[in-house]
Amino acid sequence: MSAPLLAVEGLDVTFPVMPRGAWPWTRPAGLQAVSKADLTLERGETLGLVGESGSGKSTLARAVIGTVPATDGRVMWKGRDITALGPASRRKLGREVQMVFQDPLAALNPRMNVGQIVAEPLATHTDLSAKERRTRVSEMMERVGLLPNLVNRYPHEFSGGQCQRIGIARALVTEPELLICDEPVSALDVSVQAQVVNLLAGLQRDMGLSMLFIAHDLSVVRHISTRIAVMYLGRIVETAPAEALVTDPRHPYTKALIASVPIPDPVRERARSRPVLEGELPSPLNPPSGCVFRTRCPIARPDCAEARPPLVQEVPGHRVACPYHDRGGPV
Amino acid sequence: MRTATLTDASALATAPKGRSLLADARRRFFRNRAAVGGVVVLALIAAFALVGPWIAPWDYEEIDWAVLGSVETMGRPSLETGHWFGTDQLGRDLFARTVQGTQISLMVGIVGALIAVVVGTLYGAVAGYFGGRVDGAMMRVVDVLMSIPYMFVLILLLVVFGRSILMLFVGIGLISWLDMARIARGQTLALRGKEFVEAAIATGVHPFRIILRHIVPNLLGVIIVYATLLVPSMIIYESFISFLGLGVQEPLTSWGALINDGAAEMRNGTSWQLLFPLGFFVAGLFAFFFIGDGLRDALDPKDR
């Protein structure tokens, strides 16, 4: 079997944080945003990445795309370690891996018009003439559902959904193989969310894209993903095919996450029992020992504090980082 | 079918023009009466400096021997003698000299501000974009240069290397970009965290291209405002240096040098020698300040 399109192996991302009022020479504390993350993404697949705010989803994506340095571990792109690449060859990868951002307007340079914005990846990675670039840009704009005669407009003249379409057009104009979507719809209205998600799903089908789709909304991720990975405090706690994860969640955190998805039917919504998680996300500066979820886990037991539970494959394709999930309540 | 025709190059050429942020700002600027007044005054002064040499009946270094010795009476401003602004104490035509002084002063102001804009912006943007140690080292250099009293350096330069316009430009250029570098760096730090810069990094755009295409255009608002406010302060530096007698070399002159000469003769009843250059100086500075204010209001989207 050939190497997967993208493989993240034991990835650590640690940010140095200076304690308040510290001397300049004090050693900064390490904030572990991503800890020993393992992920694989096959060609044509959509991997959903879910987790609450601060769980390290975006940092993981940024480490893959190279805007945040990995402290440890490897990111393998088609079997090649790209964390070790020099800056020039790293930049070349921009043609194959592209990203769509959370805040649609902030991701577009306010001083450039739409044509320039969408053409930038072409100008960076190809030596097409200005005329060919214009043709490619207008083709791409049509594909994302924008009128090509809007090329001379500026970002502030568009709505959030349109800005996100421009962002998608920019990301796809060089025909990349992997598209990383960092919460592409969470800043949009619900009706626009559906349009953008369907647009992404359609483009993925047409262009044979692979996607890493980050969101905190499980219902959106479920709709678009083939596989889902759940993150908690920088650790991946469960990965499974989308349907298996939603219908048969194993990790207690995943169970709580799925229970918190609202059902759009008040009768059923009121009738179901929902185990609500107590407490707050612990500080990533000082994470709990052993299993990081034990402070909020309904089935935690004393030995959870001892060692970090490994991601264990239980059913083919379904990995869980909790050895006790099928043992019921606390002993 | 409609979309198919829209992709034609001809259809694209007719694509409607978008309103850029700068176009919006331009409209706001021209609604500001004081700023437009400033532009008009400045245009008149610039026209005076450019056209003056052709319409002045006298040359700026030519001495009117008929006037020399009785400047108080013969050298008054008058249309008959051709000395429209009168003459200075040596019988040289003040109109021609004011034209020449305006040229020098505007040039000093604009060159000083240009050096500040180009050097200061690029320096600050590079420091802010790369951050970390590069930023630390680059900004410490600025701190060190700033801690040296600039007037002292300027005077020393002019004394050691002789008084020349070139030295004046060098001296003013050395100090003018420091504040601009700090401002540009601070703004760049804020911009670097924006997602569109991250998008450009993720796309693989070369860092210097990011600075030129993404950072600098977004600094423009602040830079333009600061530059228009910098021009008058450059003119004031030069005038102060000239007032001390260290500025431009005779027979060349500048607003500051003319004011200095006029002020020296204030008690001899030749007030025109002070008032004409002073009038231009004040009008010019006011014009620049009003334009700077107008630009700041026009470019600040929060203050519409």
The best one-word shape of chain B is elongated
This entry's quaternary arrangement is heterodimer
The global form of chain A is: globular
Helix-strand pattern of chain A: EEEHEEHEHHHEHEHEEHHHEE
Structure description:
- The complex is a heterodimer of chains A (331) and B (304).
- Chain A is an alpha/beta fold.
- Chain A is built from ten helices and twelve strands.
- Chain A has a single domain, classed as Rossmann fold, CATH 3.40.50.300.
- In chain A, the strands form two sheets. Chain A has an eight-stranded mixed beta sheet with strand order 6-7-8-3-9-10-12-11, sandwiched between helices. In chain A, strands 2-1-4-5 form a four-stranded antiparallel beta sheet.
- The model of chain A has no long low-confidence stretch (mean pLDDT 86).
- Chain B has a single domain (39-49, 90-298), classed as MetI-like fold.
- In chain B, 73% of the residues lie in helices and 0% in strands.
- The radius of gyration of chain B is 24 Å and the shape is elongated.
- The two termini of chain B are 42 Å apart.
- The A-B interface holds A 62, 65-67, 90-95, 97-99, 101-103, 106-114, 120-121, 124-125, 131, 134-135, 138-139, 142, 147-154, 156-157, 167, 170 and B 3, 6-7, 9, 11-12, 14-22, 194-196, 198-206, 209, 213-214, 217-218, 220.
